[in-house]
């Protein structure tokens, strides 16, 4: 069940609140046996149960204002617990307000000011008195002591609070009464009525009826940016017709608390003289103008004020250099880029205005580039001519920006543009014709010559490979004689060479780069085979089988100098290796014959005797090589009486004129002629190629 009681505040402890036994319908004597106990829902215990009388008693003095404050209602909640059977009862105790608090003003004395020229009806707000009591015990009304100039007006606020105001009912004269002393009384509605008072002192102020006047109220000042700190901007012209403190003017900036003016950080104001000066550098690019509001307030009571408005317009000076912004750069660029190819996008900006902000871009005239204006403050750097990486692999491009201010300000930015290679250069041999010499019979794999080529391109475009072309000039493909290292251009023999078979080779060599498409060039290497003494002389006449002898008869009366016969020999080698010499092998006995060393003629050296036996001569033919090679023939010479022999008939050779007898001489002349013809042919071929 729930029980509800009420009790006034400030009752003495032990006072009865309610008859629990009666209200619960329980006999008083059973309360103890059923263990009736009180459980408070709050932290502080304000009540107790008298089990003997069965009543609820106050345990302490209650203060409604302390317990519930300004709440319209004030209740305390309790719980009663009984056992056998277990029962729970809720008790709600209403605390009734009593008029135990008198009204009280926040300040015991209030000082007000009013000008003597205030019009009747002027209201002076007063502070509200406070009363902790509620309801009818709270403040009911206000009373003001009698005064012919002032009356009391009470307004009721939306929440029911009464607001007292003093109303001027009659004009004041400070010269008669400078101060008015009044008493304000606040009355509550309790019984008995309680009250509180406050003294009200009203000072009548001398009339400050002329506000400061700014002349002109709105003005404009032009000022160059970046003037030195402390530069005088202007001096305000303010007048106040009042005298004394009422005419003494103080100056201050007029700003809003929510948005204080930025100008206060840049300008200072002398509160006495009204001089406005700069206190920080001014920057046109940050703000081109400033609006300054100044309050001119006199020292009257109450103070009156006037307002001045000043507009400071800054004059731009050329204090900012242009700024170059490289938006994009296409690097590297191919060297075969067509004229007009966009290389870079360049932006430029200048924080100045007017001519000071007009910017022109420049680059060096000798560069193969030019600047094209895309749109305002944006330029394109494009190619203006052919590019050649082999002449210039890159360019340091300096872009210079100059404004139109006076004096001019300039800035520059340098960036590097790399030129990418394209395969536009064929490999080039150091010489289109080269000459090499190699000894015949050299082992296969012998290095003959190294050709060298260069390519001004780079990377794969300059990677060279060498090969031998088969031009069909030889009966056998040239590749069967020579091979070439494709990386370094060294020519090697494939097999041993024979001077007697081939004396000179024309080896066409091609060099090709790895570009796309690949470029190539050719050169011819003339390989001269050098003779080696690898062939022994061959005896042409007399021609006798190996191991046999040649028999020759001469007259027995042949005189010294008589031509017996002539040994004719040839050598397949050339040069010194083919120079032959003839000699007789030494014997024990002295022979009456001799051999001409160069011609091979065998002649009678001394007079012969008819009775002499046949003479056996061994003629040795030796070349001039190193080591020297030789061949020999055996000639048996017999004497014949009365025999006259024509040597020309005895030779097994075709008849010829006496000029053809020296065969060796003709062979030498033939070789020289062939050499001269070959040199002439090589010279003609070289002239045509060049």
TrEMBL record:
Q: Which organism is it from?
A: Pandion haliaetus (Osprey)
What high-level taxonomic lineage is stated for the organism? Eukaryota, Metazoa, Chordata, Craniata, Vertebrata
Q: Which residues form the Cadherin domain?
A: 6-105, 106-214, 215-324, 325-429, 430-539, 546-656
Q: Where are the transmembrane segments?
A: 663-687
Looking up InterPro entries in the UniProt record yields: Cadherin-like_dom (IPR002126), Cadherin-like_sf (IPR015919), Cadherin_CS (IPR020894), Cadherin_N (IPR013164), Protocadherin/Cadherin-CA (IPR050174)
Annotated GO biological processes are: homophilic cell adhesion via plasma membrane adhesion molecules
- Name-wise, this protein is PCDGM protein
Family matches, as Pfam families: Cadherin, Cadherin_2
Where in the cell? Answer: Cell membrane
Q: Keywords of this protein's UniProt record, alphabetized?
A: Calcium, Cell adhesion, Cell membrane, Glycoprotein, Membrane, Repeat, Signal, Transmembrane, Transmembrane helix
- A GO-annotated cellular component: plasma membrane
Q: What is the first-listed, main subcellular location in coarse terms? A: membrane
Query: PROSITE patterns, per this entry?
Result: CADHERIN_1, CADHERIN_2
**An example Gene Ontology molecular-function term:** calcium ion binding
The role this protein plays is: Potential calcium-dependent cell-adhesion protein. May be involved in the establishment and maintenance of specific neuronal connections in the brain.
Q: How does it sit in the membrane?
A: Single-pass type I membrane protein
Q: Give the top-rank taxon of the lineage listed in the UniProt record for this protein.
A: Eukaryota
């Amino acid at each position: 069940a729930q029980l509800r009681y009420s009790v006034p505040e400030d009752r003495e402890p032990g006072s009865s609140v309610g008859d629990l036994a009666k209200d619960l319908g329980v006999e008083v004597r059973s309360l103890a046996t059923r263990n009736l106990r009180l459980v408070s829902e709050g932290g502080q215990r304000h009540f107790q149960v008298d089990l003997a009388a069965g009543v609820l008693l106050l345990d302490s003095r209650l203060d409604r204002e302390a317990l519930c404050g300004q709440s319209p209602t004030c209740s305390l909640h309790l719980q009663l617990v009984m056992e056998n059977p277990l029962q729970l009862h809720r008790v709600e105790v209403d605390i009734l307000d009593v008029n135990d608090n008198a009204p009280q003003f926040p300040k015991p004395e209030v000082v007000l000011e009013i000008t003597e020229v205030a019009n009747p009806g002027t209201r002076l707000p007063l502070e509200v008195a406070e009363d902790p009591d509620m309801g009818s015990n709270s403040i009911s009304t206000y009373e003001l002591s009698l005064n012919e100039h002032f009356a009391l007006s009470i307004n009721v606020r939306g929440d029911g609070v009464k607001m007292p105001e003093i109303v001027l009912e009659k004009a004041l004269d400070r010269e008669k009464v400078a101060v008015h002393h009044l008493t304000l009384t606040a009355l509550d509605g309790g019984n008995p009525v309680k009250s509180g008072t406050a003294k009200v002192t009203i000072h009548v102020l001398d009339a400050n009826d002329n506000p400061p006047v700014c002349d002109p109220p709105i003005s404009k000042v032009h000022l160059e940016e970046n003037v030195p700190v402390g530069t005088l901007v202007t001096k305000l012209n303010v007048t106040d017709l009042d005298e004394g403190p009422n005419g003494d003017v103080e100056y201050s900036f007029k700003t809003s608390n929510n948005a204080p003016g930025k100008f206060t950080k840049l300008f200072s104001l002398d509160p006495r003289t009204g001089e406005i000066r700069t206190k920080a550098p001014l920057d046109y690019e940050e703000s081109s103008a400033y609006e300054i509001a100044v309050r001119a307030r006199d020292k009257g009571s109450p103070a009156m004020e006037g307002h001045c408005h000043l507009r400071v317009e800054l004059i731009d000076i050329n204090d900012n250099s242009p700024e170059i912004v490289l938006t994009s750069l296409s690097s590297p660029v191919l060297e075969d880029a067509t004229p007009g190819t966009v290389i870079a996008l360049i932006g430029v900006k200048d924080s100045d205005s007017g001519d000071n902000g007009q910017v022109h871009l420049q680059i060096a005239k000798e560069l193969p580039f030019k600047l094209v204006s895309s749109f305002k403050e944006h330029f394109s750097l494009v190619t203006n001519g052919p590019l050649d990486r082999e002449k210039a692999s890159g360019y340091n491009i300096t872009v210079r920006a100059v404004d139109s201010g006076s004096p001019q300000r300039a800035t520059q930015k340098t960036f590097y543009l790399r030129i990418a290679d394209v395969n536009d250069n064929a490999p080039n041999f150091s010489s289109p014709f080269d000459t090499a010499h190699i000894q015949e019979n050299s082992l296969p794999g012998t290095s003959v010559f190294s050709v060298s080529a260069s390519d001004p391109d780079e990377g794969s475009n300059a990677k060279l490979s060498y090969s031998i072309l088969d031009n069909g000039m030889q009966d056998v493909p040239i590749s069967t004689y020579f091979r070439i290292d494709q990386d370094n251009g060294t020519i090697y023999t494939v097999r041993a060479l024979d001077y007697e078979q081939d004396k000179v080779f024309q080896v066409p060599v091609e060099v090709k780069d790895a570009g796309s498409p690949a470029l190539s060039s050719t050169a011819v290497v003339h390989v001269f085979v050098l003779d080696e003494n690898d062939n022994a002389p061959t005896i042409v006449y007399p021609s006798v089988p190996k191991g046999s002898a040649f028999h020759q008869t001469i007259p027995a009366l042949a005189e010294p100098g008589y031509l017996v016969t002539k040994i004719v020999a040839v050598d397949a080698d050339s040069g010194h290796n083919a120079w032959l010499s003839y000699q007789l092998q030494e014997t024990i006995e002295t022979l009456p014959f001799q051999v001409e060393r160069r011609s091979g003629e065998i002649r009678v050296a001394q007079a012969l005797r008819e009775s002499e036996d046949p003479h056996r001569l061994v003629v040795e033919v030796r070349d001039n090589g190193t080591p020297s090679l030789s061949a020999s023939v055996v000639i048996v010479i017999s004497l014949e009486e009365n025999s006259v022999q024509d040597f020309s008939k005895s030779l097994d050779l075709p008849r010829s004129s006496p000029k053809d007898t020296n065969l060796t001489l003709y062979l030498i002349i033939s070789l020289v002629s062939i050499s001269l013809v070959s040199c002439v042919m090589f010279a003609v071929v070289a002239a045509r190629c060049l």
